[in-house]
Write a structure and sequence with these properties.
single chain
């Protein structure tokens, strides 16, 4: 695959994920209106959004398995379409039950696409290129988190809550067509140092995942540590689903003002993803051990910043600045964590490992939304967000301990790929 083709593939995947992730956040600024129309409260919405993420993550396990079996190009197009069609139809929902079902279907599409994009990324970019490429993909999630509330907060305020769901789905139609006609099928192991030349010479990578092989994924210590921190680390992000409502009800902002502050928060997340990817790349080149330590420190800083936002009683500029810094530091972990998973798992395991990671990630996000919804009813949104943000302390501690085992797991994978390269050469000579 040429450099131009690699760039085009990454750009189209990132753009598609912007639109798809906008679907997940588009209703956040419209919660008050939607809850009033359908006669539900935060606990019902929290339960729905928990299922949105968890059901999608469970389905992604199947997609992760077939990422090593079928055309990832076709699977990606199908999964994005699976998310966008129900999103557009949400605009026509006549009842809470229909709205609920269509949201869950959208969640399935979002979950299915996640393991595919990172499986593809691992095969087209080498370990030195991955931190920044991962940051770009992760940034697309953050941009979607901004675009969704913009649609919901501004378009929804002017035209009602239904139109934003339709507008969130439309951009992926031309993007999927471009992906289908312009992007070549990615080849497994095309970026690994040990196998790159062999794959370019037309020798097929021989390894494929089997159901019984899933057990070995849990034998890689870095995988286990990152799964644990992923559950703890995504609980606060899940709770941020209620941030718009918190800014309205607890800080006294209007819908437009709350959405503007949320946008600044999202901008901090985007900037943090990009800065985290670049700084993570520099840290990794100096020492692999330092990368998890770097992520642990930035996670602690993100926790402190978020607690500051919750307790601040300042002006909109002060809230915006504090929110930007909190999201900036908290977001630095995401792209580097995904890079670490790519660096310790062989090509055939990357689809499955990211589907499992998506499951643990979504469990944390779904749990965060569910717990925050219940805590909101019990102790108020300020208490709910404070308790949720505290889980980043657990996340940071686990990342610090990951530094001890991450370099060793990289060495084990490199040895494994060298052995596979020998098998490929032997296969080509027979």
């Amino acid at each position: 695959m040429t450099k131009t083709q690699k760039t085009l593939l990454l750009v189209l995947m990132a753009a598609s994920m912007v639109a798809l992730n906008a679907d997940t956040q588009v209703m956040a600024p419209m919660l008050v209106t939607i809850e009033a129309e359908f006669g539900v409260d935060d606990s019902a919405v929290g339960a729905m959004m928990a299922l949105f993420t968890v059901v999608g993550a469970v389905v992604s396990l199947l997609w992760g398995y077939f990422a090593d079996k079928a055309s990832r190009k076709k699977l990606f197009v199908f999964s994005v379409a699976l998310g966008e069609i129900p999103c557009a139809l949400t605009a026509l929902s006549p009842s809470w039950e229909v709205f609920f079902a269509l949201r869950i279907l959208t969640g399935i599409g979002v979950g299915a696409a996640f393991p595919l994009v990172f499986s593809i990324l691992g095969d087209i970019y080498n370990e030195k290129e991955r931190p920044m490429a991962s940051a770009i993909l992760t940034t697309s999630f953050g941009l979607g988190a901004i675009a969704g509330p913009v649609l919901g907060g501004f378009v929804g305020q002017a035209a009602g809550w239904r139109l934003p769901f339709f507008l969130a789905a439309v951009p992926n139609i031309p993007l999927l067509l471009a992906f289908w006609f312009l992007v070549p099928e990615p080849r497994a192991a095309a970026s690994e140092e040990a196998t790159r030349e062999l794959v370019e010479a037309g020798i097929l990578y021989p390894k494929h995942i089997r159901v019984q092989d899933y057990a070995r994924l849990g034998k890689v210590p870095t995988n286990v540590y990152l799964f644990i921190q992923g559950i703890a680390g995504t609980i606060p992000w899940g709770a941020f689903f209620f941030l718009n409502k918190f800014l309205e009800t607890s800080k006294g902002l209007s819908v437009g003002q709350a959405t503007a502050v949320y946008m600044v928060f999202g901008a901090g997340m985007v900037a943090g993803n990009l800065a985290g990817g670049k700084l993570g790349e520099l840290v990794f080149r100096r020492s692999a051990k330092d990368l998890p330590l770097f992520c642990g420190v930035t996670t602690f800083l993100g926790c402190l910043g978020t607690l500051g936002v919750v307790t601040l009683r300042g002006s909109i500029p002060l809230l915006s600045a504090a929110g930007f810094l909190a999201a900036f530091f908290a977001a630095m972990t995401g792209p580097n964590m995904r890079t670490m998973l790519l660096d310790v798992n062989p090509p055939e395991d990357r689809g499955p490992i990211f589907s499992i990671f998506n499951l643990t990630d979504s469990l944390g996000t779904g749990l965060g939304r569910w717990v925050a919804g219940m805590l909101s009813v019990a102790v108020g949104l300020s208490g709910a967000l404070t308790i949720s943000a505290s889980f980043w302390v657990i996340c940071g501690i686990v990342l610090v301990f990951t530094a001890r085992i991450f370099p060793k797991d990289i060495g084990i994978l490199n040895e494994r790929m060298v052995q596979t390269a020998r098998e490929m050469r032997g296969q080509s000579s027979t």
